[in-house]
Design goal:
single chain, 350 residues, 34% helix, globular
């Protein structure tokens, strides 16, 4: 389980995976959070819309229906492969589904049949609606299928999940048939293949894939703040955009975001001796920062030398998700060498 990623990080993750993203007006604060929590998140649910026409479909998933207010997903995948972001936070997409399925997703194992509706899925899943009539004859263009694959892989990569965290609506909720027209086993195989390599990169402004992406400056942004959001040194942003002292930027300005330098594999820092639950060590701060940067530890938790209860809880969740138990206990709060390496690769690997 993990803390939901920020809107900025979601956009960055999708674009890094080569997804063409359109941010709909107000999507960052469009949600159903007043109806219940969003998070901890455990996976991604794929749907089809039973609609046709991109403009019409975007309007529907934004506004919803009578009795089912929008947003109805986080992103809508159009026929041409564009992903329209319409909500951030809790959305009305998953409804109540089978708790046994959720537990299987958390453990990243095979899914049981969905035969109960005892668990709120809107709390636990990101959702992508895909433009399709769902009648078995409406085609799925190659660009759309590739965008679904890339979007699912982007969230798996952002959270350190395996493809087992990507499920279909029909696998979650009894009586559902979506997505209809391709199998989830096929999609998970595609996501698995993609996650074995680095993000294939893309851009939001027509640049060649793998070269760079763009970021639109918002009110209150600074170069250092943007660098932290995107995981890149602000000096590289300034250099790529020929911004000189006093390094001023303005809302609406489009910045080129260069790919991270150094094409080699990322090497995590050495595993620190003496790092253990309940102990105090300066290396606990490095562990806490990596947990925050991968979404396992809430950013409001202050960095401290103490490997305390909140750090232990985050590590236990991380260990469960990745089957990393140094003591053999299912709620093991100790970070081991394998866990330390994986955590830092997920947080800071190129």
């Amino acid at each position: 389980m993990a803390t939901p990623i920020s809107a900025d990080r979601l956009v960055a993750a999708l674009r890094a995976e080569g997804v063409h993203v359109v941010e709909r007006p107000g999507w960052r604060s469009h949600n159903r959070n007043h109806k219940g929590p969003f998070g901890p998140v455990n996976g991604v649910v794929i749907h089809h819309t039973v609609t046709s026409g991109t403009t019409n479909t975007v309007s529907i998933v934004e506004r919803g229906y009578a009795g089912l207010p929008g947003p109805l997903c986080h992103g809508m995948v159009a026929k041409d492969g564009t992903v329209y972001l319409v909500g951030h936070g809790r959305t009305n997409h998953a409804g109540r589904g089978d708790g046994d399925v959720l537990r299987a997703v958390i453990a990243e194992r095979g899914l049981p049949a969905a035969n109960e509706a005892d668990t709120d899925g809107n709390t636990h899943f990101y959702g992508f609606e895909c433009e399709n009539r769902g009648d078995g004859t409406d085609p799925w263009p190659k660009a759309q299928l590739e965008a679904i694959e890339r979007a699912a892989a982007a969230l798996c990569r952002a959270h350190g999940w395996s493809p087992a965290s990507v499920i279909g609506h029909k696998e979650w909720q009894p009586g559902k048939v979506d997505p209809k027209g391709f199998t989830m086993e096929w999609l998970r195989e595609r996501v698995s293949a993609r996650l074995k390599s680095k993000p294939s990169g893309g851009s939001s402004g027509g640049a060649s894939a793998g070269a760079s992406s763009t970021y639109v400056v918002k009110n209150g942004d600074t170069l250092s703040g943007i660098g932290k959001k995107l995981g890149i040194r602000w000096e590289l942003l300034a250099q790529a955009n020929k911004i000189k002292k006093p390094f001023m930027i303005t809302p609406g300005q489009k910045l080129t975001v260069p790919r991270k330098a150094g094409g080699g594999m990322y090497t995590p820092p050495p595993f620190p001796h003496g790092l253990a639950p309940g102990r105090s060590s300066p290396s606990a701060k490095g562990l806490q920062k990596a947990l925050k940067d991968t979404g396992w530890l809430d950013r409001s938790v202050p960095l401290a030398d103490n490997y305390g209860p909140q750090t232990q809880k985050a590590v236990a969740s991380f260990n469960r998700k990745h089957n990393l138990y140094t003591t053999g206990r299912p709620n093991d709060p100790a970070i081991g060498r394998r866990g330390w390496t994986l955590l830092h690769q997920l947080a800071y690997g190129n």
